[in-house]
Request: fold
Amino acid sequence: MKTIASELAYFLRGRARKNLKVLFIYCTFLVVLILIYAVLFRALMWNLEGREFSFIAGIYWAITVMTTLGFGDITFHTDLGYVFATVVTLSGVIFLLIILPFGMISLFLAPWIEDRLRYRPSSELPEGTADHIVIFGINAITRAFIRKLQALGLPFVVVTPDHDEAMKLEDDEGMSVICGSPTDVKVVAAAKSASARYIIANLSDPENVNICLTVRSHCQTPIAALVEDPEHAGLMHLAGANQVIPLHKLLGRYLAVRSTTCGALAHILDSFGDLKFAELPVHGTPFSGQTLQEAQIRQKTGLAVIGTWKRGKFTVPTSETVLEDDSLMMLAGTREQLKTLESLSGKEEEDLIFILGHGRIGCAAARFLEHKPVPFILVDQQENPSCTEHIPIYGDATIRHTLMSAGFEHAKGVIVTTNNDNTNVFLTLASRHMRPHIRIVARANYEENVDQLYEAGADFVVSNASVGASILLNVLESRASAFLTEGINVFRRSLPEKLIGLTIADSHIRPRTGCSIVALSVAGESDPRVSPPPETHLEAGANLILIGTPEQEVTFDAVFVKD
Ligand code: AMP
Ligand code: ZN
Reply:
């Protein structure tokens, strides 16, 4: 089906599109000709033979004569009539039976066949290609990553052994492609791996190990490898990978960390040394419904509220921002400060998380909660052969009885993590319906389903593809970035020379780049200054910790760091 669509798409591009216009004009000409013949037919029949026919009959007659079908049910009986019918037949033969098929063949079929036959997948990148990213293995993650690379204008090449896939990527999607086996050193060389900026290995674990070994036998370009089984990370390093990304484990962690309703300390997402980033659901805290100014979180704890989340929408708050009950605060500060907040937030409720789907990601989420420790119940319709530690409830989670008999009415949070997005939308909707105030964190296997999951009632959606792509982008830019969530990075930069001596207000960092300063670490001070006021002077030797999208991070470097 996809192939037919892509073949049809061929006719909407370039030369074929122009030819389509010619065809349209020609067909209009034929329609007009038939209409003229129909009018003449009626006039001649009436004037020569005194017979009256409808206009539709005229069209019918013109078409049957032009196509040489000539049923013979309507015929002239006069000489002039015969002459007219002969002219119509001859013009039909010329315009419909000769020019039209010939035109179709020469304008569409021949160029299309020629195109298919001419396609030879590229077997080598041009000499001198450098600083590009070589991607082995194309799937939803690398596709999302490629979209980010294209947005940033970074060059890349995809290596695939599949001729058809190569043709589709290169021809239909305009990507740079090398067709060949990823474990063939000649192919690795043809992709100009030695002068590349990074190599991304995104196939199965054994194939990735093989790619690492092949690349290492050729060059020292850094390699980022995704691993399915975190236990293979060591092997991958041994084979030569510089960065190993246990994606399923990370996805499980992102889901788990957002699912609990207990205190901020359980929600530390990432850290820069002593500076921790944590999320806290507003629900259950005394701050619910207050503005940031009224809540006085900074004054009471020293913590900065650097963002708020509501149903997937991240906002950089102002003092007037209201902390809504169903939103989350993103906090920055030290562990001590988070503890202080926890003591202010009231007593912790007993937590209970339902994990729907005990596959690779659900199991990783369970492992994370185990260490917190937060109690959880796993539900799956089948056994997970790679897990011997957990005992799930067996059953189809979409059947109400399965969840209710497992005690779903006591759940405080639910992680929806099956491998089917339709099931995930259904489970999100059903959980929201059964328990309106429950916390729902859902996994999107495909990016296009993220909005649907939010609409179904998820508080937070983690998309495999965009999380994977964001992690890859961070690795690529060798950023000291904390990955807080899709599309938001916290990153550190030493104070650029251009900004030394200015105040934060005069630096115009936010208007020029969109990034905001989260904290300032000053030489000689042990704790970073969280959310420094705009009149703060930026002194040489200081470090900035900023928050922004990956694109804003690149803009920051372009504006302040690079010349
Ligand atoms: P993974 O992609 O490895 O995280 O695996 C997803 C898990 O979801 C598999 O173990 C499936 O058995 C499980 N799963 C899929 N649909 C359902 C369902 N309707 N009820 C319970 N578990 C499911
Ligand atoms: Zn498990």
Summary: The pocket of zinc ion (ligand 2) is lined by residues 358, 363, 366, 384, 387, 389-390 (CB under 6 Å). The two ends are 50 Å apart (CA to CA). The chain has a mean pLDDT of 86.
